[in-house]
Design brief:
Number of strands: 11
Number of helices: 6
Distance between the termini: 12 Å
Structural class: alpha/beta
Shape: globular
CATH class of the largest domain: Alpha Beta
Low-confidence stretches: 1-45, 60-76, 270-280
Number of domains: 2
Order of helices and strands: HEEEEEEHEHEHEHEEH
Mean pLDDT: 74
Strand content: 15-25%
Strand order of the largest sheet: 6-5-8-7-9-10-11
CATH topology of the largest domain: Rossmann fold
CATH architecture of the largest domain: 3-Layer(aba) Sandwich
Largest sheet: 7 strands, mixed
Radius of gyration: 18 Å
Helix content: 25-40%
Length: 289
């Protein structure tokens, strides 16, 4: 995720100097291998409410287990921000008459169902921390590759740039809302059986949140989830089931780990090998450019 150790240390220094503002928490830190470990406890029954998504409860037990979570120094926990605060948009790309066309979809309603559901496959792509779809190269490359491989598919880029910025602990909390919005859209459009969700870094765990949202609300499973370097801080050390991307979230779960044990998840989360060596080579090449 980071090209060199110097940049990683600089980024950690930036995070450490950011103080939490409106977070209710208790922190019990201790040291292991030079990394501050922490038990982060949310106040019981804290929840986020959105008129479209309903009540999203942050289970305190997720942050109160002594063995749960390797945390970068200074990283704490907050309630997620609203879809409006994180500037969340679903931007769909499709091929028409040999050219790519795009449109922004309304995830709150069923208005896009006829447009989206006629596709052979729908691919959601979720960027990671400190990213936006307009400023990063890899997301456009992956989008173009999927549309070239199957012109009858549609690619939906999930942009949450307003919630993916500093501080990290806020971005990590925001993935709950990112996932809920994707899940709500999938349910509104009735596309769970033909959906693939691809997430990078924190986006990997947002994919997991989306899959769990659909499973809990509709008792259906997303077809595929792909995690590209799933983020580690705030997630590793926790039981994967219900905490982060794990092999039971979708019918098929795949992950590519290139920073495992550093700032990425140290535990493999895939449930099967990639669908093809071509896809593995494409994604690996894209992520390292």
């Amino acid at each position: 995720m980071f090209p060199n150790k110097r940049m990683k240390l600089l980024l950690i220094a930036i995070i450490v100097n950011i103080e939490p503002s409106s977070c209710e928490l208790n922190i019990i830190p201790f040291l292991r291998d030079g990394i501050v470990m922490g038990v982060h406890c949310l106040t019981p029954l804290q929840s986020f409410y959105d008129k479209d998504l309903g009540n999203i409860t942050l289970q305190p037990e997720k942050y109160c287990s002594p063995s749960c979570g390797r945390h970068i120094p200074g990283v704490t926990c907050c309630l997620p921000q609203t879809p409006e605060q994180i500037s969340l948009t679903l931007r769909m790309f499709r091929v028409r008459e040999g050219e790519q066309k795009q449109m922004v979809l309304d995830w709150r309603t069923r208005s896009a169902k006829n447009i989206v559901s006629k596709s052979s496959k729908i691919i959601f792509i979720i960027h990671g921390w400190l990213e936006s779809w307009e400023t990063i190269k890899w997301i456009t490359q992956v989008k173009d590759a999927y549309l070239q491989k199957d012109p009858n598919s549609k690619v939906i880029i999930v942009d949450w740039k307003g919630g993916a910025s500093l501080p990290y602990f806020q971005a990590a909390s925001n993935i709950r809302v990112v996932g809920a919005v994707i899940g709500k859209a999938i349910m509104n459009w009735g596309i769970s059986s033909k959906t693939l969700i691809v997430g990078f870094s924190l986006g990997s765990h947002a994919a997991s949140e989306a899959a769990r949202f659909v499973a809990q609300k509709s008792n259906q499973m997303i077809n595929e989830c792909h995690g590209l370097d799933p983020a580690g801080p705030y997630f590793d050390g926790c039981p994967q089931e219900g905490y982060s991307l794990n092999r039971n979230d979708c019918k098929l779960v795949q992950a590519i780990h290139t920073s495992s044990g550093d700032v990425g998840m140290p535990i493999p989360v895939r449930s099967a090998l990639p669908t093809s060596l071509h896809e593995l080579a494409l994604l690996t090449k894209t992520m390292t450019q």
